[in-house]
């Protein structure tokens, strides 16, 4: 094994821990199944129904990721009944289950399960529900349960519907863009406002096309296949983790697959992974869910028997939390409790830390540690020629090395302050913020400002804009101001002549 370990690319079989006293061995692990519905809520994996090899199931299980214990869920209320390949989602403490196939008919009933009270209820929606189907895409977005596509027993579909949890109303959604063709049993996952759909079957062929739907605008877009694109398949699994989507297994029409792929959302590239360890056999119609730093898969069908084995794949040996330095430092801006120096700006106190300001600015180092009156402990230092809002932005930069939510007008005043406090990088950031606001009406004012404060890069950009838009610029009030700066007028004339 290489240094650092290939454990980040290793499967291992999950063994359920021993159950507490009084729980029978028969309750320890769910029986074999394919096409079960599953969802992760907190530290629990919930799994309902599926196909057990001789018939459809309606049993309900939960797996505790911390204790590694399976437990059958004993419920109150009317069970949804046996079914497979149905979608289950979670919304505000309840699970919701729509449709599926019970072995003799395709369904479009809708059921809710309250997690805390362990109670099922049939949801009676307003309006007509979608037609019966299984093998569809199901996600929650905002206060909607959204579904796409599937198979109704005679027809493959690509319609989209959503259920409003607030009004209990179903409605068909008119989507736009590059809408996927009809299909059932693709894989899907949700990341932010987007749902991603890969592959599926349309009654004739298996597919490996890839789509994204923005659930805010209901707009579809096809994603180009770059890199090691998975071969066409359906009944495969899909999960999202840390900026990537992972696809495992499925059925290609002749074989149950055990290949494993990653699609990186940032690069748009597919990569085939080469994991080690206790490799799962090829399978379709499996449960796949992410919890913490791992992908878990359960059961499925290998072409001969229905399975109930359980595997874990760790994404990396240790999950390093994202850095928080900038946000932590931003909390020091005007923080009275953690300050040791007070400035008075526009009559308001502004609190800061001496050591941070001195480390980041020669101007503040001379002020606070140079033996002047301002270096005395407890002294209140009055700041002139800088507004309160601009001074706070100045402190934000000194603590975090970044600027956030700066308007073009603030950037103008901050540029002046950056020159006063000898902050070259801040000056450049302000120039960039101002550059994006250049228009025919503002360019001459910005040109003057850049000249006055030695912002050479901004000045050059403003001058180019003036030359490119001279017909419109010469009629503005700002152009008249240039008469007070004959040197700048001559610079424009000479540049235009050349």
Automatic annotation (TrEMBL):
<dbReference type="GO" id="GO:0005794">
    <property type="term" value="C:Golgi apparatus"/>
</dbReference>
<dbReference type="InterPro" id="IPR011047">
    <property type="entry name" value="Quinoprotein_ADH-like_sf"/>
</dbReference>
<keyword id="KW-0677">Repeat</keyword>
<protein>
    <recommendedName>
        <fullName>BTB domain-containing protein</fullName>
    </recommendedName>
</protein>
<dbReference type="InterPro" id="IPR011333">
    <property type="entry name" value="SKP1/BTB/POZ_sf"/>
</dbReference>
<dbReference type="Pfam" id="PF24681">
    <property type="entry name" value="Kelch_KLHDC2_KLHL20_DRC7"/>
</dbReference>
<dbReference type="InterPro" id="IPR006652">
    <property type="entry name" value="Kelch_1"/>
</dbReference>
<dbReference type="InterPro" id="IPR051568">
    <property type="entry name" value="LZTR1/Attractin"/>
</dbReference>
<dbReference type="InterPro" id="IPR000210">
    <property type="entry name" value="BTB/POZ_dom"/>
</dbReference>
<feature type="domain" description="BTB">
    <location>
        <begin position="339"/>
        <end position="407"/>
    </location>
</feature>
<dbReference type="Pfam" id="PF00651">
    <property type="entry name" value="BTB"/>
</dbReference>
<dbReference type="InterPro" id="IPR015915">
    <property type="entry name" value="Kelch-typ_b-propeller"/>
</dbReference>
<dbReference type="Pfam" id="PF01344">
    <property type="entry name" value="Kelch_1"/>
</dbReference>
<keyword id="KW-0880">Kelch repeat</keyword>
